[in-house]
Amino acid sequence: MDASITSLTLETKSMRSEIASFQSRVTELEQRMGLVEAQATVSRNRNQDLLYLRSKLTDMEDRSRRDNIRLHGIPENEECADMQAFMSSTLSKLTSLDFDPSIEFQRAHRVGPKRPDNPSRPQPISACLLRHNQTRQILRAIMDLSE
Length: 147
Known about the structure:
By secondary structure, this protein is mainly alpha-helical.
C-alpha cells in the first residue's frame, strides 16, 4: 500500500510540474499575443494615417493643377522670349475674351524635353494662371468654340 501511495504521490508531483510548465507556456503565449495585438493596432493606425495622407496629397495635387491650361500644336520658337505675354495674347485671340484685369500667370513654359526624333511635333505649352476665375472663363470659352 505504501508503494501505491508513493506511486500516486510521484504521479501527482509529475502532473503538478507539467501543469506548472503549461501555465508558464500559456502565460508566455498570452504576453506574446498582447504584443501582437498592440502591433496590429499600431499597424492599423498607421495604415489609416497613410490612407488619409494619400487622399490629402491627391487633393493638393489636383488643386495645384486646377489653374493650369495646356496648349498643343503651337510651333516652337513662335512664342519669342516672353512666354507669358505670348500666352496672354494667344488666349485672348483664341477665346475672343477681353480680360479685365489682364491675364496674369504664375508661370508658363514648354513641357518636356525637345523631341529630336520628331521635331515637327512641338511640345505643349503649360501655363498656370494666377486667378481661378480667369481659368474657368478661358476653359468655358474654349468649350463653347468646340461645340
